[in-house]
Specification:
- The complex is a heterodimer.
- By secondary structure, chain A is an alpha+beta fold.
- Chain A has five helices and 20 strands.
- In chain A, the strands form four sheets. In chain A, strands 12-19-16-17-14-13-20 form a seven-stranded mixed beta barrel. In chain A, strands 7-6-9-4-1-11 form a six-stranded antiparallel beta sheet, with no helix packed on it.
- By secondary structure, chain B is α+β, with helices and mostly antiparallel strands.
- In chain B, the strands form three sheets. In chain B, strands 5, 6, 7, 9, 10, 12, 13 and 14 form an eight-stranded mixed beta sheet that branches.
- Classes of the chains: A alpha+beta, B alpha+beta.
- At the A-B interface, strand 15, strand 19 and helix 5 of A face strand 1, strand 2, strand 3, strand 4 and helix 2 of B.
């Protein structure tokens, strides 16, 4: 029997925050174990697609500064998200494109010029063990990813076997997705609630009309924002309840924090609104200093069950019922 | 009784009950969770807390409108917590000394002897109202008023795993080493969170906990059984 070839890559330089992430962990929030997973689901999905991976494979997520990685096996890679001047050896590579790398070659990335987080997908995926249904690193709970922690220089990560069939590689290599051009001013849509009634009319107006600035204290737990304070009726303390990726919590000082992938599962600050799922990637890529405006939208425009119902009732009306 | 249903974005719904912390309201939360806990309704995950239930759904399978109707249909109304059978986890605890370094100081503050504080802390059956904050961290209700104690002004940078503490009107166990401001009165040899164990989380919200004072020798014995994964958790019914 042929020996299974051990495919791997070596982290030569990890940079400030490099973790293994996938779609996130489901089903353990009731025990205090958060979802984790990638911050930018859009760039993540694109990266996996480009190298012919299944849509839930694990990738590397780098924040503000990219890593230096040596590949120990031939594979396809793709870099998406933030522009960190990626190069193989000294030859620059494009974002949004599959690249063939050979054993011994090195990927070198620098500081983010545009955007905040880059994703590196490898054909076959980063093959760390699945813990509680996910390969995502949850640093607080010391689980997932590589030994439940952020990556360090010298770590060796296993790579899974490629999913695509022979002959498909050329097609993957020919494909190119237009790289994102991240703006320093973003607008994100929010659905008001669940505790918007805790805020004054003025508070709601501030939230929906003022421009907020991303604070350097932002991280995978939350995007902290500076700007006009948001006025509440009687403080923002509530009896602790559950939090989602995208909840906009208002601290007792009146500052908004958008809770992100590594958010606590529960919290005691009132949540004025929630950022819609499709716009979370914009916040994931917002660097400190980026300007943010919140645009009000409605749950009805995202509700397929209502759509179905409307279509059905329309059908009945059409029949003269 | 449900007091409000609101969207938490386009993939989750927050259901709120009476705005208070007590067993009856909390029992309503778990009653609703139980009634919705079946496959095929598009619900992905639920997070019960003191007086609300957060429900995550798959927007491909269901939606806000349809789920809201389902939730209303399952409104548990008023639930009586009195008759329900209680599953009580016995939590051994080594009180005082190095394991609970704030206990000695609390005697002056609370005007109670150490043994009196230990008795008051270990005679109550505490309800696990919810879990959160840290993996396996339990929010317990029912701490005797006589031993309420304010949090430290400056939190400790590292509280060891297993520490049992009092913070205001709450008591609980630190499942992992963590910074924190609670007053430490003891330590349990049980692991409330162990990612390498089959059931990583020791207990479940909606169940109960009772602390049982143990000697240092018993603590060491239980701890070694826990480390070897041969410890059998003890439950009593009340």
């Amino acid at each position: 029997m042929e020996d299974r070839i051990f495919r791997s890559l070596t982290i030569l330089r990890a940079g400030p925050m490099l973790t293994v992430q996938d779609r996130g962990r489901t089903g353990y929030m009731k025990y205090g174990i958060g979802e984790s997973g990638v911050m930018d689901h859009k760039s993540y999905a694109e990266a996996n697609r480009l190298v012919g991976n299944k849509d839930n494979e694990a990738v590397l997520e780098a924040t503000l500064m990219g890593p230096k990685i040596q590949f120990e096996s031939d594979c396809l890679i793709a870099v998406t998200g933030a522009d960190m001047d990626a190069a193989i050896e000294s030859a620059p590579i494009e974002r949004g494109k599959a690249i063939k790398v050979y054993a011994g070659q090195t990927l070198i990335m620098g500081f983010a010029k545009k955007g905040c987080r880059a994703y590196i997908a490898v054909s076959g995926g980063i093959d760390v063990p699945v813990v509680m249904g996910s390969r995502s690193t949850n640093i607080k709970c010391h689980i997932g990813g590589y030994e439940g922690r952020a990556l360090k220089d010298g770590d060796v990560l296993p790579i899974g076997n490629e999913n695509y069939i022979a002959g498909e590689e050329e097609k993957l290599l020919a494909h190119h997705e237009a790289p994102e051009d991240y703006s320093e001013e973003i607008q994100v849509r929010v659905i008001m609630g669940p505790q918007d009634s805790r805020f004054t009319g003025n508070g709601i107006v501030s939230f929906l009309t003022e421009t907020y600035t991303v604070s350097p204290q932002s991280d995978r737990m939350g995007i902290r924002l500076d700007g006009q304070k948001i006025e509440s009726e009687n403080g923002t303390d509530i009896i602790s309840d559950g939090i989602v990726f995208g909840s906009v919590q208002i601290t007792s000082d009146g500052d908004p924090i958008v809770l992100m992938a590594d958010h606590q599962t529960t919290g005691g600050y009132a949540k004025i609104a929630t950022v819609v799922y499709e716009d979370l990637h914009l916040l994931a890529q917002a660097r400190p200093g980026c300007k943010v405006k919140f645009i009000r939208t409605d749950i009805k425009s995202f509700d397929s069950s209502r759509g179905l119902l409307n279509r059905l009732s329309h059908l009945f009306r059409g029949k003269g019922a | 009784m449900i007091s409000a249903i609101s969207p938490s974005g386009d993939r989750a719904i927050t259901v709120e009950f009476e705005n208070e912390i007590n067993e009856e309201v909390n029992a309503e939360v778990y009653a609703l969770q139980e009634s919705l806990d079946y496959p095929g309704n598009g619900i992905v995950e639920m997070v019960p807390t003191f007086r609300s239930l957060l429900i995550f759904y798959d927007p491909q399978l269901t939606g806000y409108h349809r789920l809201t109707k389902l939730i209303r249909m399952n409104d548990p109304g008023r639930v009586s917590a009195a008759n329900a059978k209680k599953k009580v986890l016995i939590v051994p605890c080594l009180y005082g000394g190095e394991s609970g370094e704030d206990l000695a100081g609390l005697t002056r503050e609370l005007q109670l002897s150490e043994s009196e504080i230990i008795r008051l802390h270990s005679e109550t059956t505490y309800r696990i109202y919810m879990m959160g904050f840290l993996p396996g961290f339990v929010y317990l209700g029912g701490l005797n008023k006589k031993i309420w104690a304010p949090r430290l002004k400056t939190p400790r940078t590292l509280i060891p795993e297993g520490s049992v503490g009092i913070g205001g009107n709450q008591t609980g166990v630190y499942p992992i080493g963590s910074p924190g401001g609670w007053r430490l009165i003891g330590r349990t040899p049980l692991k409330f969170y162990d990612p390498d164990r089959k059931n990583a989380i020791l207990c479940k919200a909606g169940e109960y906990i009772k602390f049982q004072p143990v000697s240092e020798r018993e603590y060491i014995k239980i701890r070694s059984d826990v480390e070897a994964d041969t410890w059998k958790t003890e439950y009593s019914e009340a």
